[in-house]
Hints:
Blueprint: H1 12-27, E1 37-42, H2 48-62, H3 68-85, E2 95-102, E3 106-112, E4 122-126, H4 132-138, E5 143-149, E6 153-160, E7 163-171, H5 182-214, E8 219-224, H6 240-245, E9 246-251, H7 256-266, H8 268-274, H9 277-292, E10 297-299, H10 301-309, E11 313-319, E12 324-331, E13 337-343, H11 347-353, E14 367-374, H12 375-385, E15 389-393, H13 398-406, E16 410-414
Parallel strand pairs: 5-8, 8-9, 11-15
Antiparallel strand pairs: 1-2, 1-4, 2-3, 5-6, 6-7, 10-16, 11-16, 12-13, 12-14
Helix pairs in contact: 2-3
Bound molecules: zinc ion (ZN).
Amino acid sequence: MTDTKENKKRTSVELYELRQSIKRLEQKKSFNMSTSLISLYIPPGTRLSDIRSQLLDEHGTASNIKDKNTGKAVQAALTSIMARIKNMRNTENGLVIFCGMTGLNKMEFHSIVPPEPVGIKLYMCDNKFHTEPLREMLEPKTSYGLVIISRGGATFAVLRGNDLKIIRDEESHVPKKHKMGGQSQRRFQRLVEEAANAWYNKMAQMMNEIYLESFPVEAIIVGGPAISNSKYLESKAIDYRIKEKILGTFDVGYTGKAGIKELIEQAQDLLQDFELVKERKLMQQFLTHLGKDTGLITYGEKQVREALEKAAVDIVLISEEVDRITFELKCNSCGNEINDTVIVSNYEDYINNLSSKKCPKCGDTSLEIINEKDLVSELKQKAEETGANIEIISTKHEDGMVLYKAFGGIAAILRYKIYGY
Ligand SMILES: [Zn+2]
């Protein structure tokens, strides 16, 4: 359960795998329900040698624990962590470590590179692992660029989760339109228009620079007085990559922070929908191929596996509800081999009850796990080998439910036809 990806944005399948790891960790209990399972959150920038010396102190303190078995178990876990992190290095996001004697008297060690930086150092000893801070990091957080643009000024902000940052607040020097009259009025108007154009161009460049370079965002929402009727967003000065990210425009009366706040309120529904836009687009692509009978899709576990074998897959779509683990078991009495599939939330129960499970052939209870496969990880590996992408689709929207219910949760969009169409 070690993973090594750092700071770059993780794909949906990587986040899915992390979520699965957390689900498994949450099912684990200490061997005798004692408070001997250690959860350790290490912030970035902390030296692991410093952590080791702190753990050494804890090791000393643990000898005072009243219950001798618990004390020994804590010390064993600490020793195990100290030995392991000797050969590890801290990452840009820090490290999260879980270690201790679990259910079957087994010393387990798991290290995870979190998807976001660890905020504060935590050391917890309990009868379970503490995964709450990791879970928190997995909440979806899209970054949005928010722009208020008007003749009088412009404000640029970035919104991520509940965190709003004003990046720039600019004032324009475009003169107000005065009433003059005759020749000088027309000349003055022309100068005002030139100044306004120059201002809008400058703001277009600023928008490009902010949202493509300094603060890259996934989507942009633009507000301003009568912005919905303005041609500003069609301007050539705005980079096409920015244009592609614009989700919508809203007429907003204010500028500055007040304008940004009003924009967020107006765009509330759009922001919520956007989280799922990418997933829905992929599903629409799949359903369009299906409807037009192009032969460029397939679905079902067996079919998708076959398509992957033929390197014919462009994108694998997997429902988040598909979380199966397949165990390969061998009977130590008669040598019989069987497969057993469980869902991830029953993983720990299954392992703990294995000793009472009977071999279907000889009836003995000496089955042993010789291999376990996580369906999604397995498909991911196959996808990587052939350059296919893999996307996890939630069931928070109708198209996601369709994938899960109508197509068994596994489908693929193909690069070329593989069946006799
Ligand atoms: Zn047997």
